[in-house]
Each structure stands twice: as C-alpha cells, then as structure tokens.
C-alpha cells in the first residue's frame, strides 16, 4: 500500500524548486513529479527524487525506482524537513548513457537537529527512462 502524497506548504507552483536549481518548482522538478516529462539525465533524476522527498511525493519516488529494487511501500518521516542538496560527483548518466552514478549530500532537519545523508546512487535506464537502482553510503 502506498500512502497518499503529502505536500509541504511552500510547495506552491511559484515557489523555488527544492533541488536548488533556482527555477520555480512547477517548471523544474514539478513537471517530472506530475508526469509531464522524464528526467533527461541521471543527475536530473537525482535532483527530482530529492525534491520528491522534500515535498513528500511518495508516488513519484516509487515510480522512479527500478522495478527490481523498488519497495512495496514507502513511508516518509513527516518530522523530517529537507533543507539542501549538494551534488558531489557524477559519473556518466548523460543523454546517451545507459547507466550513471551521482554522489550527493542531502541536508535535513529532524526534531530540531540538523543531519546529512550522503550517498552514491546508481541509476539505469528502464524502458527508456532513468530510474534509481540503488545506493551506497557516500
């Protein structure tokens, strides 16, 4: 069972995208979340998945997960607020690649305390679209 997506109040169409692009959410990761476009690169998918965590879009997270590693359900912590994304490194994952990796640091606050999740995520194309395969601690 997939929980219904929750949205944060700052997730309006004109607000800045959580991925840090500087673009409005609606024209950046919001397009991908709504299914209007697919991520062109592994890094774009990584950024859109970070934004999905930030806005609580579990449906998008599950849809963008490889079928062989996708969990049956995903429960996000409502007390965790994602505060910033740093892309550390990318390896392949371009327009003409079939695989790619993105190393990142995702910053958050939970219970009033700051935290960071560091990971090297692997991405592959499934049915022509970039999807998240798995990740190793970064």
Features:
globular, 3 helices, disordered N terminus, 4 strands, 35% strand, Nuclear Transport Factor 2, Chain: A, YchJ-like, four-stranded antiparallel beta sheet, alpha+beta, 138 residues
Description:
- Residues 41-135 form the YchJ-like middle NTF2-like domain.
- It comes from Micromonospora peucetia.
- Pfam families: YchJ_M-like.
- With 138 residues, the chain is of the alpha+beta class.
- The protein has a single domain, classed as Nuclear Transport Factor 2, Chain: A (Roll), CATH 3.10.450.
- 18% of the residues lie in helices and 35% in strands.
- It contains three helices and four strands, in the order H-H-H-E-E-E-E.
- It has helices spanning 29-33, 42-55, 58-63; strands spanning 80-92, 99-110, 113-126, 129-137.
- A four-stranded antiparallel β-sheet has the order 1-2-3-4, covered by helices on one side.
- Strand 1 and strand 2 form a beta hairpin.
- The longest helix is centred in the middle third of the chain and has 14 residues, at 42-55.
- The chain starts with 28 loop residues before the first helix and ends with a strand.
- Residues 1-11 have low confidence and may be disordered.
């Amino acid at each position: 069972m997939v929980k219904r997506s929750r949205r944060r109040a700052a997730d309006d169409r004109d607000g800045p995208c959580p991925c840090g692009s500087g673009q409005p959410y609606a024209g950046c990761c919001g397009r991908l979340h709504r299914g209007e476009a697919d991520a062109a690169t592994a890094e774009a998918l990584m950024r859109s998945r970070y934004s999905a965590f930030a806005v609580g879009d579990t449906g998008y997270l599950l849809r963008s997960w490889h079928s062989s590693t996708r969990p049956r359900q995903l429960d996000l912590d409502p007390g965790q607020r994602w505060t910033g994304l740093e892309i550390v490194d990318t390896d392949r994952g371009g327009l003409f690649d079939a695989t790619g990796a993105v190393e990142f640091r995702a910053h958050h606050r939970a219970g009033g305390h700051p935290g960071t999740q560091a990971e090297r995520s692997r991405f592959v194309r499934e049915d022509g679209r970039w999807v998240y395969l798995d990740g190793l601690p970064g």
